Amino acid sequence: MRFAGSMNVRSFRLGFAAFFMVGASGAFSAKGELPPLDDRKWVGCFVALESKQYEFSVTTQGKGKIEVLGKKGTPVGNTLAVSIDFVVQEVLPDGKIVNKAIKTESLESAQAATLKPRNIVICGKVTGDAAFEAYLTEERGAISVGGKLTDPGTLTKYPLRFSIRVNFPDAYVNDKSKSGDKKEVKSYEQKIEKDRLHLKWADGKSRKQDLAEAVDASSPEINGQGITALSLEISSYQEKKFVLLASENSLMTLSNASAKPMNTGFAANWVADPAKDPQSKARLTIDVK
């Protein structure tokens, strides 16, 4: 094949070299997304972590997920995946919380995509152009996350705060006991017999919550003055236990869509106190044991 001149040959060589460097590094990504992993298993992911108990990932659009591995070493099911979201919240005068949507085109990180997350920093903005940093690292087999607001953007009317929301799905979404069939009801009752939710409050007191009891998870009866530790065991996760720990100067509160049993789904919302944690060292640790 012949080229029409030396400039064409030079352009081809430069173009080929650039393509090779991008392909080899795995750093190529679509505009407005974090760089993707060069791994078939983790297509569309920026970060992934595999352990004997669970698999954790963050997509190139900043969405986190934990999938528990069952007794056979495979995920217990897509519907049981626990999602992890970085959130900027606006606190209205009546106490109502408005979650601001992340602008995925704003996401960026100085770190390369990795299967061994260490001190990852993700920067981004939400509607209203408030900017945040989210922190992520693997720590002794657990996931440690945190973050802070770096700029309020145009959202200066009401207080803002950075939050991490861990969403636990309906643990028995395929349960058939509501049909009234006696066998199904008995089977369901046996499944939930050993389900447990233990909470430790900021004042040192503890609470054991019946997961089959319909409750408003955002109530003071559940949250006290804030939660520092959470332990969750549900039979759907095949004897695995979730443990969430809020470090010093941070707390968790729980919430659900309505007053329903918490085994039908709830969220743990983590926030740090910027006044007590000016260097943003507070973290939420998430582990599966």
Task: Characterise this structure.
This protein has helices at 6-25, 182-192, 220-223; strands spanning 45-50, 54-59, 64-68, 82-91, 97-100, 102-108, 120-126, 131-139, 142-151, 160-168, 196-201, 206-209, 214-215, 227-233, 241-246, 250-255, 260-261, 266-272, 284-288. With 289 residues, it is mostly beta strands. The strands form three sheets. It has a nine-stranded antiparallel sheet with strand order 6-7-8-9-19-15-14-11-12, with no helix packed on it. It is globular, with a radius of gyration of 22 Å. It starts with 5 loop residues before the first helix and ends with a strand.
Highlighted features:
289 residues; nine-stranded antiparallel beta sheet; eight-stranded antiparallel beta sheet
In short:
With 289 residues, this protein is mainly beta. It is built from three helices and 19 strands.
Q: Give the tally of β-strands.
A: 19
Give average pLDDT, whole number.
89
The helix-and-strand class reads: mainly beta
How large is the count of helical segments? 3
Query: In which order are the strands of the major sheet placed?
Result: 6-7-8-9-19-15-14-11-12
Rg: 22 Å
- Helix share of residues? 10-25%
Instruction: Pick out the low-confidence regions.
Output: 1-30
Q: What is the element string, with H for helices and E for strands?
A: HEEEEEEEEEEHEEEHEEEEEE
The first-to-last residue Cα distance is 61 Å
The shape, in one word, is: globular
Largest sheet: 9 strands, antiparallel
Share in β-strands: 35-45%
